[in-house]
Amino acid sequence: MEHELVEIPEATWACYSLEMNMMKDRTAEVWKTFMPLFAQIPGKVNLQKISIQNYGGAFDIHSFTPETLFMRGAAVEISGEQELPTPLETLKFRGGLYLKTRYKGLPQNAVTFFQKLYLEVLPQMKLQPDNRIQFELLLPNYSPENPDSEEDVFIPVRPML
User: Fold this and answer.
1) For the chain, what is the mean pLDDT?
2) In the chain, where are the structural domains located?
3) Interval 121-129 mean pLDDT
4) Best CATH choice for the domain 3-159 from the list 3.40.50.1450, 3.20.80.10, 3.40.50.300, 3.40.50.970
């Protein structure tokens, strides 16, 4: 697993999101709402689909439970403010320093991948999670049912104090 520190610029995203937890995962609902509207989104910068997680603070793997509420969204980058189809909203992405890595596999198998990132990789790199959006860029072959699916994972980080 290769890791790279990248500085991501601020951006504007067209987004649909729902609050959920792992016990009541609504990810499929998010994407089933977003995808039929994708072609109608004006001002798309590209066709890159973005999966978003916002934990309402810096992610803490030690206190995260299946009942922990978080926001999950589907998004695409747009050029500034646009008139978006309902129920999409504009999200101002703050950007900043991110750890970039690639995940290959099924979503349900990602737990050990993320545990390794948060419990081993970040401490070894003297980094800690930051209070910003975590996101994944879904690569062209992405399908949640395909074990060969790939996504680029972006973890918001800052130097360890």
Assistant:
1) 95
2) 3-159
3) 97
4) 3.20.80.10
